[in-house]
Amino acid sequence: xxxxxxxxxxxxxxxxxxxxxxxxxxxxxxxxxxxxxxxxxxxxxxxxxxxxxxxxxxxxxxxxxxxxxxxxxxxxxxxxxxxxxxxxxxxxxxxxxxxxxxxxxxxxxxxxxxxxxxxxxxxxxxxxxxxxxxxxxxxxxxxxxxxxxxxxxxxxxxxxxxxxxxxxxxxxxxxxxxxxxxxxxxxxxxxxxxxxxxxxxxxxxxxxxxxxxxxxxxxxxxxxxxxxxxxxxxxxxxxxxxxxxxxxxxxxxxxxxxxxxxxxxxxxxxxxxxxxxxxxxxxxxxxxxxxxxxxxxxxxxxxxxxxxxxxxxxxxxxxxxxxxxxxxxxxxxxxxxxxxxxxxxxxxxxxxxxxxxxxxxxxxxxxxxxxxxxxxxxxxxxxxxxxxxxxxxxxxxxxxxxxxxxxxxxxxxxxxxxxxxxxxxxxxxxxxxxxxxxxxxxxxxxxxxxxx
Length: 452
Known about the structure:
Elements: H1 4-14, H2 21-54, H3 58-94, H4 98-126, H5 130-133, H6 141-153, H7 155-170, H8 175-199, H9 201-226, H10 242-273, H11 278-314, H12 318-354, H13 358-371, H14 375-390, H15 395-420, H16 422-446
Helix pairs in contact: 2-8, 2-9, 2-11, 2-12, 3-4, 3-6, 3-7, 3-10, 3-11, 4-6, 4-7, 6-9, 7-9, 8-9, 10-15, 11-12, 11-13, 11-14, 12-13, 12-14, 13-16, 14-16, 15-16
């Protein structure tokens, strides 16, 4: 039996009359809420790890913080591959071709296994030297290396969790990924309680990795055996198909290079911040974790926009796709602005939960409040990017992101950090997020993506 969101989407794509404004808002909201919950629960895992490791001291927190951008890089590469296949799935389901959608899914799963194994080998190979390359103080090298090594070993689970969740979302099932990611938070707490006491910082990575493995198994079970549109059928071929991989490459490769360059810029930012010491590294890491609670709702709405735009274009409804894109940006800006206002006043309490170190709390609160003024523009960039991804338009947005990140954020950070310390890096971040939001919003409004 189809879930509520899948039924709503099917009704929208099959009817001939134009939806009213209220109905469009309702569809966007109904798909966004489960996606928002899925994103928020993933951030709660970061809060859990940060809080449980924070009790071990500033150095323990810094050892995770110094490699966090590198873990994001590997995770974002997994996301890029997932998008290349899941967007095609949305187009095929929107066009009513479920058998073709299943073909795309099976090709995607095969690619996910191979790609994640390659990433795992690369990650484990560099883990022992990574903290040194990033300029971290020698006292945290061992813990940072151990954390990154375990994360790299978990990449096959991370990749399968990502692609299965994306496939379910693009089929209209936003609820299952949300519920399973919420369950993953509980698993993370249990596993962390078992392993942090024995292995310290490395134990936190082990706990998170095991939670990813369990959730990936459940996500694949739901996708392959229970999904109304995508569950496996007897007699259907698993043979790789060149055209599917070629289309995936057109979407995934620009995203992959974008994520490589974006995370590379974040790693460079970490390299700029690292000489400021363990307190600055820990404060920066905790501030990023705290701020993520504001922007993850935007990523949830962006996921809904990818589904809605992808299925609308697959059904040949370009005007509806544009309406959904505009509504998603509007909703994202509203939600993230509200979250930013709330976080501005709550961040001292949030940092108190994350670390007992008062100097880390004070510095983290100060720099986070600088960036929160850019949340509306950050929302524009996230939701506009999600809508453009649904149309398969990833190359130009990737270029715009690179120009913004390397041309604005890093340039300003190099100039300001020497004069203002960590606050300079966060001023550079706030300015860059505003520039990025404007660039991607202009791209969305230009409308060329509807001709793709």
